Amino acid sequence: MRKSKKSKFRSVTINKKRYYFYTIKWLDITGDSGHATEEEMLKLQPSKMVTQAYIFKKDSKSIWTFASYDETDAQFSDRNVFPIGCILSLEKIKL
Fold it and tell me: How many domains does the chain contain in total?
């Protein structure tokens, strides 16, 4: 009998599908509705955000994530979808 190899990465199995846990670094819009000089305008930069979540699905345009789930049903909460263009890095979390 063959024994399954234990993953060295943090994951959860839901309905026989394994989802891995990642740290996702990404850029978000930063906005300001007040008046500003040219100098102040040029200081405005995108926010560098960090999200930790399980990756549900990934394709060439988007990454879908969830952070919470139901242990008995395949239900997901704390969900996001990120455009690939705003992702700076993806790091799979080790145990």
Answer: 1
